Amino acid sequence: MENPFRPSAGATPPEILGRAGVLDEFEYGLRLGSGAPGLLTIFTGARGIGKTVMIGAAHDVAREHGWAVISETATAGFMGRIGESMRQLAEELGTGPVVRRITAVAAAGFSITTQLPPERQVAWRTLGQNLLTLLDKHGTGLVITVDEIHAADRGELAQLAASVQHFTQDRLPIGLVFAGLPAAVSDLLNEGVATFLRRADKIDLHAAAVREVEESFAHTFAEASFEVSPALVRRAAEATGGYPFLIQLVGYFLWKEAEINQGTLTPESVERGIAAAHRRNARTVIEAALATVSPKDLDFLNAMAEDDGPSVAGDIGRRIGARTNLVANYRLRLLAAGLIEAAGHGKVDFAIPGLRQHLRAQTSD
Predict the structure, then answer these.
(1) Which end of the chain has fewer CB within 10 Å, C or N?
(2) pLDDT tens for each residue of 138-176
(3) How far apart are CA 95 and CA 81, in angstroms?
């Protein structure tokens, strides 16, 4: 067997853990058609928690039900790229053979770096109406997915939300799936320009149960006939904390260790695999997340790292010598960046596994 673990952004893992039933409302919406609540879905959660994987799973479900899919990331000009994809789909439906199952079309050849001007907004909406009318005649519809909305131009998101609301009011078969960091999603839903999106099925993704990870590792390694004790499987599962990206990383490096050692995992090889996984997580997730943090925000994070669990805002303020209003500003910025999360009244905790240990290691060097 080849190594089934794929620890890269958005790659489909061998098994999606802790997500049973998450797409049930979305799938039911595909069966009901226009106006079904599940056709508006927003995935939120910390970095590496599996938002992009869930968008991929939504793609698969939509295609299985015969719906067309347009997939975008919320970089500048995504509305224009969605428009180009809609144009290509409309041409395909208008001139090609009628087929129920339509594959996703990759946007290419058209992009803009600003919001669509009014005349192009009208053209975009008209193009969408024509495409959705064609799809409706074929008993299908269109799902648009937009990943990383925390990085999006809010004007473009507002344009997309307004257009989708218009299509829904006209009872056209449209679905919209977003994914983004929790604070950014909350801000978007609280803005007047996107009140329509408050009706969306907001799904906050959390870590999988360690027991599920343990069972998955045991099953996957047994299929490959690897020799590994239950205690070591448990140790590996606990090292992931149920965090989807770490599940893939730990599984990936343990598989490599087993290949090197003729299918056997020893306590030493398991620890090497776990250490390699955490180093890769630090480089690809933690360091990337910290790259844009200001020195003052970093002081805030280092003050949090002194605690073994959730931190009290007042304690953080005393440690960094900052007034309450400044502490509140740092807190809001770090929430928006997806580095911390609320942990009860007046408390915050790290949103990314391993961040506390990484900061402690940096300050001790």
Answers:
(1) C
(2) 899 999 999 988 777 778 888 888 899 999 999 999 999
(3) 21
